[in-house]
Amino acid sequence: MMSRPSRSLPLTPDPGRPRPKRDPRQLPRLLAFARPYRLLFILGLCATLISSGLNLIFPRLFGRLIDASFLRVGSTDTGPLDRIVLTLLGIFALSSVFGAAQAYLLARVGAGVVADLRRALFGHLLTLSPRFFADHKTGDLTSRLTADVGTVQAITSTALAQLAALSVNIVGSTALLVLTSARLSLLTLAVIPLVIGTAVLIGRQIRRVSREVQDRVAEANASAEEAISGVRVVQGFTAEGVEQVRYGRGVQASFLAALKRARLQALMSGTMGFLTFGSLALVLWSGGRQVMSGQLTPGNLVTFLIYALQVGGAVAGLTGVFSQFQEALGASGRIFELLDERSDLPEPASPRPLAHAEGRVAFRQVAFGYGETPTLQGMSFDVPAGQIVALVGPSGAGKTTLANLIPRFWDVTGGSVQVDGHDVRGYELKDLRAQIGLVPQETLLFSGSIEENIRYGRPDATAAEVEAAARAANADSFIRAFPGGYGTVVGERGVKLSGGQRQRIAIARALLKDPRILILDEATSALDNESEALVQGALETLMQGRTTFVIAHRLSTIRNAHRILVMNAGEIVEDGPHEELMTRGGLYRDLYELQFRREQEERAELV
Predict the structure, then answer these.
(1) Cβ atoms of 167 and 343 closer than 8 Å
(2) From CA 496, how far away is CA 129, in angstroms rounded?
(3) What is the average pLDDT across 464-475?
(4) Out of 3.30.70.100, 3.40.50.300, 3.30.413.10, 1.10.3720.10, which CATH number does the structure's domain 361-606 have?
(5) d(Cα 131, Cα 112) in Å, to the nearest integer?
(6) What are the tens digits of pLDDT across the range 387-420?
(7) Burial state string for 1-16 with b = 16 or more CB within 10 A and e = fewer than 16
(8) Can you tell me the distance from the alpha carbon of 455 to that of 453, in angstroms, rounded to the nearest whole number?
């Protein structure tokens, strides 16, 4: 069996280690995903600016409406009043139309950016090597793919438009404030630097805490994903309480971090509210004194108050946008950590073509280790095309590791693995792996139909080809026995099928792919005798005319192999066909006789 890393490590930083500093290039990188939607964004931005500009007009008209009402007390001529009201209604209507256009256009941009970012991130994850996934939790990766990407949606769409609109409001309202009353404007504007400074100070802390919230949520998701995917083991060991406690700790940590963020956001909101409305109270007090002294009309005072409210609202809005930017930058840091990951299986600069392999495989002084301890050392042998080679040895001998080097799931640390006389590192990974089929011990089926799972080997296959592959894999009869036939949904990981049925679906999938090199990794070890016989018959069909590497748990299944490589401690200690190795004596005969006695005992128990 392959030596695997012990327990997957979280992608989130160790709390004891310093966090990476925010990269100022994150924002341009995020905005690059909005480039395909720049026309929609520009139209949405224009609609935002027009709507904001219209909103600057109505306070002036509102003030005139009040003055017209006061100055014409007792008059029956309502013409001026009617015209002002109609103008106000027209402005409100136009503002609503452009506001609705802005909302739709920017929502379209945001949804497109999130979809593109998720596609890019998922596509990049699929290019990373098995070593990366061995070191990182699936739940944490999916959290970044979903929650973190969703967090950055606002910054790539509405946040920038809001920034433009709020800037227009602040500049326009401030100018009109000064034109309405320069004296009151000084009192109002004096508070703005204090508001901005408070927002920046608290906003920085919100960004840091937001990153912590995202990390804690990802860790909780990782625990939940592990427990759900392994629910049979959890229930089999009655470890539900253990998993509840583990997940509960993660949820509690994310809850405490969220509370910390909520306190900071509440502090910012409360401070902004007090500074904004406190300054308005002072303005109303000072303006009221000017109205009483005749220096200001009631309409101008109302106009000034509305503009002051717009300035205060815009400043408060800027603090909210700033907070959004901080949260999004925290999430984007986690996203770009993944996008910046590079596979440790580099593609060749000038790949050698491999359209149709012969199937010759050679190991030349191959050495490999997952860490400092070598797993394979000095491995050399040649396998002609079409030969069936069995890999035998005690657990931990390196059998699966050896097989995983052929499709280049891992790179050798010394020597070379060759296919058709050339180093596998000289081929493109997709070309190399297109020539290799794999039937593992633990078959993974996807949660679609049986037909979709078989067609996974070759998506463009016809229905007739799918059924032919199923018949060759001894799977057609049980498939047709289901009410849904080939359209039967297998459930997550094929949970609705038995182990033997799953294996035969996997064999049909490999048959449909029609690989030149085949790797069978203990494909029958977990099956009962009846299922094993059916699967073994399907495997014999699958192996015909292909270079095959068989890793067998039951030695009786590999007696007919052309050649048997006996491995121990990462080395080939015996090499030859079954009869020769049995005659020669040694590790193989010891393993075979031990296994034979076990099988005899199993049969006796059944009888």
Answers:
(1) no
(2) 30
(3) 87
(4) 3.40.50.300
(5) 32
(6) 989 998 888 888 888 999 999 988 999 999 999 9
(7) bbbeeeebebbbeeee
(8) 5
- Estimate the crossing angle of helix 240-292 against helix 182-189, to 10 degrees: 160
Domain ranges of the chain: 29-339, 361-606
Within 8 A by CB and 6+ apart from 80, the residues are 68, 72
> What's domain 29-339's superfamily in CATH?
ABC transporter type 1, transmembrane domain (1.20.1560.10)
Cβ burial of 589 (10 Å; 0-12, 13-18, 19+) is middle
Closest to 424 in 3D by CA, of 369, 364, 467: 364
340-362 tens-digit pLDDT: 888 888 888 888 988 888 889 99
Q: What is the pLDDT of residue 529?
A: 62
- To 10 degrees, the CA torsion angle through 95, 101, 107, 112? -150
Asked if 102 and 157 touch (Cβ cutoff 8 Å), the reply is no
Q: Which pLDDT does position 17 carry in this prediction? A: 38
Token pair recorded at residue 264: 């900071």
Stated pTM of the model: 0.66
Residue 133: pLDDT band (50, 70, 90) is: confident
What does pLDDT average to over the chain? 78
Closest CA to 48 of 101, 124, 117, 107: 101
